[in-house]
Amino acid sequence: MERKTEVKDILERVQRGEISVEEAEMYLRRKPFEEMGFAKLDTHRELRSGFPEVIYCAGKPDEYLVSIFQKMYEKNGEVLGTRATQTQYELVRAKLPQVQYDKVSKILKIEEDAQKKAAGRIGKIAVCTAGTADIPVAEEAAQTAEYFGSFVNRVYDVGVSGLHRLLAHTQTIQEANCVVAVAGMEGALASVIGGLVSNPVIAVPTSVGYGASMHGLSALLTMINSCANGIAVVNIDNGYGAGYMATQINRLAERPAQCTVPK
User: Fold this and answer.
1) Counts of helices then strands in the chain (DSSP H, E)
2) From the CA atom positions of the chain, what is the Rg in Å?
3) Run of H or E including 253
């Protein structure tokens, strides 16, 4: 189901005669960002890119975070924040009681009509992890993709030390428009999956592992140097970036074929 942008909604209201052309023009002439002094909210980002701005919560002063969350909810009717703490959740909840927090992924969000949105998710993304310790990063990817309208299958704890576990889910990963492979230690999972599927694989190195893993650097280097084709790599622990990119790929895969007639 295509996500309706605020601009598209305005144009449809003009078409239905609910607002005048002049009123629509006043809206479209608004500044493409909201000035808050300490932040400039990119209110036209969804119009440009198809995705609204997302809040990176870590490190933000408490009063700034709460104000930004309130303003974005006021503008969009929903909002997504990543890398939030329990304390930040409680601060936001004091102002917006409907906010939801997931302790595993550290995602903080308000979704507009969540049940209807879930029913309208499109395509198929598979999010896989090598181990259980990789799940927090994988959940950040999976829940980001779901928030942006993608259907996600989770295939967790299928690392290469027990390859039969992954092979038991071969059909699931091969049917996906995109696969997100999340792994720490040596990061070999992405290469194995890359050799099994025909669609893109997004590799996410995690900081899980003993000393020589160098906080995810070993997995990052393994994934960058993979001999399997069709693998793209995001930064260490960047589940959000993987979920975003996977959604872009998924949307393209689900877009109706455009037939062009030669002139």
Assistant:
1) 12, 11
2) 20
3) helix 239-254
Digit-coded pLDDT (tens) for 153-204: 999 999 999 999 999 999 999 999 999 999 999 999 999 999 999 999 999 9
Contact 136, 124 (CB under 8 A): no
Residue linked to tokens 């928030």: 147
Q: Which amino acid is at 148?
A: F
Return the structure tokens found at 160: 């290469």
Question: Sign (positive/negative) of CA torsion 105, 191, 249, 48?
Answer: positive
How many whole angstroms separate alpha carbon 164 and alpha carbon 161?
Answer: 9
**Sequential DSSP letters for 84-153:** --HHHHHHHHHH-TT-EEETTTTEEEE-TTHHHHHHT-EEEEEEEESSGGGHHHHHHHHHHHHHTTEEEE
Digit-coded pLDDT (tens) for 191-248 = 999 999 999 999 999 999 999 999 999 999 999 999 999 999 999 999 999 999 999 9
Q: What element of type H or E holds 56?
A: strand 55-56
Q: Is the dihedral of CA 81, 59, 67, 38 positive or negative?
A: negative
Fill in the amino acid letter for 76: N
Amino acid present at 194: G
State which H helix or E strand residue 242 sits in.
helix 239-254
Look at residues 133, 172, 165 and name the one whose alpha carbon lies nearest to residue 151: 172
- What is the helix, strand, coil percentage profile of the chain, to 5? 45, 15, 35
Beta-carbon neighbour count of residue 50 at 10 Å? 15
Backbone angles phi, psi at 79, to 5 degrees: -160, 145
Residue 183 CB coordination number (10 Å): 32
